[in-house]
Amino acid sequence: MRQIGSEEYVPLVLAQKTWLAWKLGDETGARALLEESLQIARQRVSRFPFHWLVLWVQVAMLVATGDLEAAADAAAAMLQPPLARQNDGVELHLRRIAAARGGGPTELGRELQLGLAAARGAGYL
């Protein structure tokens, strides 16, 4: 997209590249792309309502490293406007994750795993 002078789709392309690197097991590449994607999405969140595409990858990566609180914060961010709505079942899990923040790690970990399973089932991961 940058080659043709259009910046509008850069966040989407970066989100897809982040997901692909993560799926291929390229942890270093996925982290670098994640950081770039998050930085750009923060600058234009009102014009990139599908920011949750990269946030789900961030949640999965944070859960894998054991950073449950940061994963829950990223999950809760997906409920904030102006992000586009997700599948109702997935949003239910996002609300449960948000509610479990500040509770015990066992409950939070369980809710995060259930949320990730819902995201996978919806085809987001």
Structure description:
The chain has 125 residues and is mainly α. The protein is 68% helix and 0% strand. It has helices spanning 10-23, 27-43, 52-65, 68-77, 88-100, 105-121.
Structural class: mainly alpha
Distance between the termini: 23 Å
The overall strand count is: 0
Global Rg: 14 Å
> How large is the share of residues in beta strands?
under 5%
What is the fold's blueprint, element by element?
Layout: H1 10-23, H2 27-43, H3 52-65, H4 68-77, H5 88-100, H6 105-121
Could you give a short description of this structure?
By secondary structure, this protein is mainly α.
Summary tags:
mainly alpha; 125 residues
